[in-house]
Specification:
Elements (H helix, E strand, L loop, with lengths): L15 H11 L10 H8 L3 H13 L3 E3 L6 E3 L1 H12 L2 H17 L2 E8 L2 E8 L15 E3 L4 H7 L4 H8 L15 H14 L2 E4 L6 E10 L2 E11 L8 H19 L24
Antiparallel strand pairs: 1-2, 3-4, 3-8, 4-5, 6-7, 7-8
Helix pairs in contact: 2-3, 5-9
């Protein structure tokens, strides 16, 4: 069903109806963009009437839309509004920060977490490397062109081929250094190579003298963003292999946090209070 496993058990203390509604929303994906009432009931083992009420309620609040002809449901505009709010509210940065900090401590490199923004990748979280800033202005908010540098190539390589071709064919592309590739056919060869090896590696394509290695970050099987390490060309000694394990591990942790965010610690309320007694008998 979903691209990442769904735990269908309602957590202790949670409202079953709310939990079921959330499970319905999580069942939608690119490879399964619409659902019918009977399909939802069969998928989750619910009565058809339960599935119908859940879908109708979600549609009533704009989280789903119903096709009046087929009576099938798709994701609605309320989800889009929340998604945009999520990416710009600071919650994403808080979720990613521990992973980026640990990766920076492990490698000493500058770490970037970026999301697609039209024909660019937008940096949403970053950690400066031990040798100092790559730029003299904040990295967060910086836009990286889709055709130049590993940060972008590691994401766009994993788009469906037809979608990538529509983005890059017939579009003028700026040359930032003498290593920037602007020919669409050569770019496509590089994207295929990135996808085959699982990472992108570039030197001086966007910033002269800066080397970058990057891997995609997925939500299920969908490319969501990229995680990259950057630094002076001399830091990498001509190859990124010694950093790949740490980079891939960090990307995996990010994917886990994006699909299953860490739970808040359980309240200590109601637990017996532990006291100690002094020799004089006073706690």
């Amino acid at each position: 069903m979903a691209d990442f496993p769904l735990d269908r058990r309602t957590p202790t203390g949670a409202l079953q109806t709310v939990d079921r509604a959330l499970l319905v929303l999580l069942a939608f994906e690119r490879t399964r963009p619409d659902w019918g009432v009977t399909e939802v009931a069969e998928e989750f083992g619910w009565d058809t009437s339960v599935a119908q009420r859940l879908l109708a309620t979600l549609a009533g609040r704009g989280f789903l839309v119903s096709d009046p002809v087929t009576r099938r449901y798709r994701i609605g505009p309320a989800v889009l509004r929340l998604g945009r709010l999520w990416e710009r509210s600071g919650s994403l940065e808080l979720l990613a920060a521990p992973v980026l900090e640990e990766l920076r401590r492990t490698t000493g490199d500058t770490v970037l977490f970026c999301l697609p923004d039209s024909f660019h990748m937008r940096c949403v979280a970053a950690e400066e490397g031990e040798t100092g800033p790559l730029r003299y202005y904040p990295l967060v908010g910086e836009l990286y062109p889709a055709h130049a540098g590993a940060t972008s190539k590691s994401f766009y390589a994993y788009l469906p081929d037809d979608q990538r071709h529509r983005l890059f064919r017939g579009r003028p592309m700026a040359r930032f250094t003498d290593r920037t590739v602007t020919d669409p056919d050569l770019l496509e060869q590089e994207f295929l190579k990135v996808r085959a090896q699982g990472y992108a590696w570039t030197v001086g394509e966007y910033d002269a003298g800066v080397a970058t290695v990057a891997v995609p970050v997925f939500l299920g099987r969908e490319p969501y963003g990229s995680l990259s390490l950057g630094g002076g060309e001399d830091r990498f000694r001509g190859a990124p292999e010694d950093r790949l394990d740490a980079l891939r591990h960090a990307a995996h942790l990010l994917e886990q946090r994006l699909t299953h965010p860490p739970q808040r610690p359980k309240s200590r309320a109601g637990r017996p209070r532990t006291t100690t007694t002094t020799p004089g008998g006073t706690p």
